[in-house]
Amino acid sequence: MPSIRVTLASNAKQSQKAPLIIPSSTSYDPASPVSSRSLVIKAAQSKLRLKKPSRVFIAGGKELISEEDWKAALKDDVVLLISAAEDYVGSRNDESTNTAYGKESSAETNGDCPIEILAEKAFIDDLSIKQLETTACTLPGIIHAVAQPDLHPGTKFPIGAIFVSKGWIHPPLIGGDIGCGMAWYKTALTRSNVEGDKGRKVAEKLRGLEGAWRTQKDREVWLRDDVGSRSYSAGEEWDASLGTIGAGNHFAEIQIVEESSQQDETVDSQYQLHEDEVVILVHSGSRGYGGDILKRYTANSTTSMKEDEPIATKYLEEHDRACNWASRNRDLIALRFLACLEPSDETWELGASTASSSNHTPEELLLQTQLHIQSRKVVDIWHNNVSTTPWPPSAPPAEQYQAYIHRKGAAPTHNPHTSLPLTILPLPGSRATPTLILHPTFSASNAHGLTNALSLAHGAGRAMSRAKAASYIEGKYKGRSEDLLRGDFVRGSKNRGGEKGGGEDVNGGTWVVCEDKQLVWEEAGEAYKDVWAVGEDLVRRGVAERWGWCRGRVSYKVRRE
């Protein structure tokens, strides 16, 4: 056989690759002492650092076992996936439907899929609508699609959208930041602690929030479920990011509750917001772990999986792990903030430690701290995930079936753990605008949640792409970019409006901690839609009520330490 140029990749971590030339002197026969297989296994040990490689696959899941398998597979530029005994990771050609966006050939596509667009006042561009319609009508099993008022374009699939499917799961509709979401936590601070120039002083206290938190053993304990029967650990590589916010539009913001006009007397006070309270809103996800999951399960451009396929079961298991990892991540971010904000309270002492030593924290202390964090938590939701629900919501139980709700930038109206309706949800604008307090509603007018697919907007939504925002904002504030970080800087309002009354001020007032200038420009308030318009659209469609709003005082993005 002639020399063949191949690429070796780890089956478990397919981004880990190495080239290999298989010389003409090797044999296709795996039993031969000079076989191609033995060369590949040895190369995997040295180049990929695999300890005990034992199986070889090609894309699609075919395992190379016989001489005929190797002869058929070995061609220039083929990728050989090397396994340390684990099964093939990815979508098998015989187990899933490979789809190219817009080219789905399955008979289960729905060209007449119902589509709801909830926006009227909030602007939505044509590309977003095109992405929504194409996705709804070309992917198999889609039975309902919704555009929230914060809809904006994604790379292929829109953000701020919900797709309900029957019998099919579509990982790309969720994206790579699986489990990304938001959580509110209460603090012991008062309004006077963060108003005016004191906000700047608070911002200066926010240090020690980057980098790995404590030891891997401590992180594994933190990642246990509530009863301690299992861990959501993703392994040391990904767990090292636990307790960190991440880039992009992720943030942690210290806010004052300016208005909280309604309360639910049937709900504990802990799970509601009250005027003048100081809270932390944390927006973060599964960091790199979710992206790794998406990459592995869509390695062959696979978009869709039938629910009864083994590959779908495996994906959902990892998806759920990433969601729970992300929730624990938000808890740990809040702990690290509380350690800075309430340093005299020993309850939060573990948050102040970024110990990289080998000294492990007693499990009891870690678990007690976790319970204390739960006592400060108001609400925690995932807005990038897939969940199952009886569908349609308004139908009698005997007529309902299990459906999958895919959310990419859309907040659920129900608690994922109890399936009960949530009392309040955050609707953040940008770092220069308020966060609205929304209360989801269910009635005959919205088909008890069918109209909005049991979801609400998760934010204001981008009005400019990152590239456009960076260019526009850099030019607008040329030579004075630092003004964008100041809580006492008032800039011209781009989109003042919305309901009358307090809170429609979009002129800044937030001290920003962000030592990445590019990110300062990309995330400027002008890059986002008017959050009041988004909220008004939801109220107008009868899917939510506005119960109040919070004003940001300190917004944390990233600090180089």
TrEMBL record:
Annotated positions binding Mn(2+) 1: D177, H250
Gene Ontology biological process terms in this record: RNA processing
Catalytically driven reaction(s): a 3'-end 3'-phospho-ribonucleotide-RNA + a 5'-end dephospho-ribonucleoside-RNA + GTP = a ribonucleotidyl-ribonucleotide-RNA + GMP + diphosphate
Residues that, per the record, bind GMP: N249, H250, F251, A252, E253, H383, N384, H458, G459, A460, G461
Keywords recorded for this protein, A-Z: GTP-binding, Ligase, Manganese, Metal-binding, Nucleotide-binding
Record: residues binding Mn(2+) 2: H283, H383
Cofactor requirement: Mn(2+)
Co-factor binding details: Binds 2 manganese ions per subunit.
Enzyme active site: H458 (gmp-histidine intermediate)
GO molecular function terms noted in the UniProt entry: GTP binding; metal ion binding; RNA ligase (ATP) activity; RNA ligase (GTP) activity
Keyword GTP-binding: yes
EC number(s) per entry: 6.5.1.8
InterPro entries recorded: RtcB, RtcB-like_sf
Name recorded for this polypeptide: 3'-phosphate/5'-hydroxy nucleic acid ligase
